[in-house]
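Predict structure. Chain length: 394.
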Amino acid sequence: MKKKVVSIILASAMVLSLTACGNSSQTPSTDAPAQTTPAEQNAPAETAAPETQAAPAETTVADGKIALVTDVGTIDDESFNQATWEGVKQFGDMNDIEYTYYQPTEDSTEERINQIDLAVAEGATVVVLPGYLFGETLSEVQTTYPDVNFIAVDVSEGDMTAPIEANAYACTFSEEQAGYLAGYAAVKDGYTKLGFLGGMAVPAVIRYGYGYVQGIDAAAQELGVDVEVKYTYGGQFFGDANITAKMESWYSEGTEIVFACGGGIYTSALEAALNYDGMIIGVDVDQYSVGEGNDYNPVLTSAMKGLTATVIDKLEGCFTGQWDTFGGQVENLGLADGDYLGLPTDGASWAFETFTQDEYEEVLAGIKDGSIVISNDTENQPEVSEGVSVSYID
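Prediction complete.
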């Protein structure tokens, strides 16, 4: 099914309490990288709802230096690392705080710790860590550097090997809610043959996928239509020829749209979709731009979570003396807590042909007030109604 897709501009408001740290080191603002060459693999999706450029804090911002250490991806991965880096960059630019990034040379806890060691040695007073892979790393460095504040995004208590300390903060998101919205909207817009391509089967990716299935099921019941879903994991967070071939077989067999959830794995779904006039759903951030420059843009929408805005908020709190209001906590952020997840809706960005913004706001409100219940169980596949067929493919 080929659809005309208009430009999507991502905007959102995040409702978080102000927060803060209090380290000092006076330095000029910069966005130049500290080191490294870009890795060839992209980072896990795990993580971006509505993003926004927050207004500068009215309170005085303390001096310091911010460092971001990437996981297995790069700061231009069009996904998780990039969205987190944008938060660091926006906050640093708004407040004349020096910032830079460090990219591990390999996927290991030892190398991640090496990069944090380097960042601290070069003056970092706040270190931002994106992705569940930093759980073990955070458990160690929080005690090694008690005077440094650590902000870990998409790191849960289960990812850590020690209790969180007062100088660290970690959060996860209710990805199942964003996945639900994407699946619900796609079926309401007329798609009946859908697919899910996950990266690695880690909790955040599973929550996206199982939420997607639940949203598909709910919309199918409302419309009284039969729906087919193909569901698989690629076992990695980047696309390759084998995954592209699998996606091409799906589209050739009638799949109309695929939710590509897992960092750079979207490249395989995108390539296959363009070869068969298919569509895709992006993840974490607004991925409309990855489909530009073709005969048509195959990105229908994106299931987003607020990576950029969350990082800005926590940095703001850190540098305005409010760290104690959230430091030492591990939070899960969902729609009941604020606008942490959603689909792009700004002006001309609404790309659906029949699914309306009124319908979207109605289902969004239902999730927020609890009248729509979405399971976040990652151990058991979601139950679906008669007429909805889900094929889980190895």
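Summary: Confidence is low (pLDDT under 50) at residues 1-20, 22-60.
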